[in-house]
Amino acid sequence: MQKTKRVLVVTGASAGLGKALAQESASRGxxxxxxxxxxxxxxxxxxxxxxxxxxxESFPADISQEDAIIDVMTxxxxxxxxxxLLLNCAGVLEPVAPLIKISGKEIQTSLLTNVFGxxxxxxxxxxxxxxxxxxGDIVHITSSAAENPYAGWSAYGSQKAALNMLTRIVALETExxxxxxxxxxxxxxxxxxxxxxxxxxxxxxxxxxxxxxxxRDNALGSADKIARIILDITATNWPELxxxxxxxxxxxxxxxxxxxxxxxxxxxxxxxx
Length: 273
Prior knowledge:
The protein has one domain (about 5-190, about 225-270): Rossmann fold, CATH 3.40.50.720. The chain contains nine helices and seven strands, in the order βαβαβαβαβαβαααβα. It has helices at about 15-25, 40-50, 65-80, 105-130, 155-175, 190-200, 210-215, 225-235, 250-260, and strands at about 5-10, 30-35, 55-60, 85-90, 135-140, 180-185, 245. It has a seven-stranded parallel sheet with strand order 3-2-1-4-5-6-7, sandwiched between helices. The chain is globular, with a radius of gyration of 18 Å. The model has no long low-confidence stretch (mean pLDDT about 95).
C-alpha cells in the first residue's frame, strides 16, 4: 500500500467523482493538482483543501484543447518534479438521444472531451511517467455503457468503449515500463450526470425510468466511498492490474482486490449493471 506522498493530477476535478477523489487524496497527504474548465470552482476546491491542511493547486484548462493540456502538464512536472498518478474523470454525458436526432456539432463536442482529451492527457502523462524512475499510474473512469448498449447513448457508450480500448493498447505498449494504466467503472452514483439522466426525455432514453427508480430506492453509489476504494486500489503493488477494465460491482474483481488488501463488497454498489 501507499507509503510516500504522491503528486496527483485529477481531471474533471470541479465536481462529482473528480472532486471526491481530489479531496480524499489530499486528506491522505498527497499533493493534488486540479484540472477542469471551471476556474472558480477549482479555485474554491483548492482553497478548501488547503484550509483543511492539504496540498492542492488549481490548473484551469479544457482537456479537449491540446496546447492547454501540454502547457498544464509541463507546469505541474516543473513545479512538483514528478507526476505519479493521473485520475482521468473528465467526461460529458450529452448528447442523450437517438443518433438520428444528434447534430454533428454535438458529436464532435463530446468526442473532443471523452476521447480526444483522454488521448492527449494520457500521452502527456505517459511521457513523464516513463521517464521517471518509479513510473506512475493512469486511471480512466469508464462506464458499463462501454460494454452494454443502451438506446440513446450512442455517443457516450461508444466513446467509453474507445477509452477502454485505448487503456488496453497503452498497457501493451508500456508493459516493459513501471507504468500501470487501467480503467475503472464505478457504477451509477449520485452526480450531475444522474440528474441529467433523470431529466432526460424517456422517448430519447428508454432507460430513463430505471434511473429514476435507482434514485427513489436510494440505490445510487456514493462518490466519496467510490473515491476511497479507487485510491486504495492505486496504492497497491499489483502489476497485473495494468490493462484491466474493472467494474467495482464485479464479485470477481472484488475478490482480486481483497487479495491485494483492498476490501469492499457488492453491497456498496446497488445500481443495475
